[in-house]
């Protein structure tokens, strides 16, 4: 009768071992799950932190790089602008010294240097178109239209009149060379027709006269161009009938416009306009390079053998063409240094007066 209780106790023992095992395995499972959850959470946190850190660093790097690039661009632009401005102001100041000095000391070297400096300024800064014609081909008609449109015209024939007025050194040289007979009866100036009759007949005398008058005309042209540079003009037209004969101006110009007419037309117009004889007209025409030769070298040709209306129409088309081409040529860039140049002239003049 003792065996059944033994079985019961054994079963109980087994049951308690089994429940212990189950509890233990549950415990282990819970620990494993907790460990897994903790590990996954840590991994997620680490990944999120790493991603956030990387993104933040990337944003910071991008901001820094963009900022550095902007700073570099700003610094470069400021340095370049200041450098250009300072160079031009210094340049303008030294140029002024040349100008004033050349008025005080008439020294050929200074004048030459000055001219080279002006020529460089003008080539860089101002578009210069040039009108060339034979005598009575019609350039005054074109220049009148240019002036109507506000385009400055430097008229070499007018300048050649100005530099031989009494009181100018060139006037004295011409009188010294040709004697007082070359003066008007009241001695108020040169008898231009008389002088013309002499020089248009004689190539050597014409060459001598050009050598006397030419440098003074060239100085006047450079002064006029410098003035236009200083006030920021983008296009200047030089009216130079004898451009191809003298050639100096060719280095300055961006565009050569030739106004051409046949020889018969020239003679007819000279006779009508100036009251000269056929022979006097031919002397003047022959003194110049043939118009057709000039036509060959031109950039733009305007023919003037027909009616005034058709000539004016052509001239207007050409003017519109060059006006559009050079409308904005460096105006903005150069008007400021131009003002600096004028300021330098005032300061320099006071400096030299001391
Ligand atoms: C000889 C001068 C006094 C005659 O004066 P005038 O009033 O009678 O004529 P004007 O000056 O209007 O000239 C008439 C025509 O001849 C042309 N011309 C003038 N000088 C020259 C020259 N040396 N060679 C060729 N053509 C000339 C002009 O361009 C114009 O088309 C005058 O032309 C003069 O001083 N010329 C020398 C200066 C010069 O070379 N001028 C050219 C323009 S830059
Ligand atoms: N198409 C035309 N028809 C008729 N007359 C004209 C025509 N073109 C110009 N003329 C006249 O011919 C003359 C010469 O013209 P303009 O004075 O314009 O020539 P220019 O080239 O300036 O002469 P110069 O070289 O002597 O200074 C003027 O009297 C002008 O009125």
Automatic annotation (TrEMBL):
Keywords: ATP-binding, Kinase, Membrane, Nucleotide-binding, Transferase, Transmembrane, Transmembrane helix. Pfam families: CoaE. GO terms for molecular function: ATP binding; dephospho-CoA kinase activity. CDD domains: DPCK. InterPro entries: Depp_CoAkinase (IPR001977), P-loop_NTPase (IPR027417). The keyword Transmembrane applies. GO terms for biological process: coenzyme A biosynthetic process. This is Dephospho-CoA kinase. The chain crosses the membrane at residues 20-45, 51-77, 84-107, 113-138, 331-352. Signal peptide: none annotated. The keyword Nucleotidyltransferase does not apply.
């Amino acid at each position: 009768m003792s065996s059944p209780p033994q079985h019961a106790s054994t079963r109980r023992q087994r049951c308690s071992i089994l429940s212990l095992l189950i509890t233990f395995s549950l415990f282990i499972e819970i620990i494993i799950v907790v460990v897994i959850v903790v590990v996954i959470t840590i991994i997620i946190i680490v990944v999120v932190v790493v991603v956030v850190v990387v993104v933040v660093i990337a944003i910071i790097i991008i901001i820094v790089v963009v900022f550095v690039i902007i700073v570099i661009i700003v610094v470069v632009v400021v340095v370049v602008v200041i450098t250009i401005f300072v160079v031009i102001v210094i340049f303008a100041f030294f140029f002024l010294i040349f100008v004033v000095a050349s008025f005080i000391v008439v020294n050929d070297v200074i004048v030459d240097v000055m001219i080279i400096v002006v020529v460089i300024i003008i080539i860089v800064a101002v578009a210069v178109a040039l009108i060339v014609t034979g005598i009575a081909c019609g350039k005054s008609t074109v220049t009148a239209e240019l002036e109507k449109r506000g385009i400055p015209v430097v008229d070499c024939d007018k300048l050649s009149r100005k530099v031989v007025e009494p009181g100018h050194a060139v006037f004295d040289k011409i009188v010294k060379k040709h004697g007082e007979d070359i003066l008007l009866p009241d001695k108020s100036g040169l008898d231009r027709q008389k002088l013309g009759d002499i020089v248009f007949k004689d190539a050597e005398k014409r060459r001598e006269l050009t050598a006397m008058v030419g440098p003074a005309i060239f100085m006047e042209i450079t002064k006029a161009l410098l003035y236009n540079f200083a006030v920021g003009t983008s296009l200047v037209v030089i009216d130079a009938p004898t451009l191809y004969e003298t050639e100096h101006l060719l280095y300055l110009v961006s565009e050569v416009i030739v106004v051409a007419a046949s020889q018969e037309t020239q003679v007819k117009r000279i006779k009508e306009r100036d009251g000269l004889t056929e022979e006097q007209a031919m002397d003047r025409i022959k003194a110049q390079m043939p118009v057709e030769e000039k036509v060959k070298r031109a950039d733009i040709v305007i023919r003037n053998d027909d009616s005034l209306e058709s000539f004016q129409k052509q001239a207007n088309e050409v003017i519109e063409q060059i006006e559009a081409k050079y409308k904005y040529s460096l105006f903005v860039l150069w008007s400021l240094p131009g003002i600096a140049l004028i300021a330098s002239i005032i300061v320099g003049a006071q400096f030299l007066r001391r």
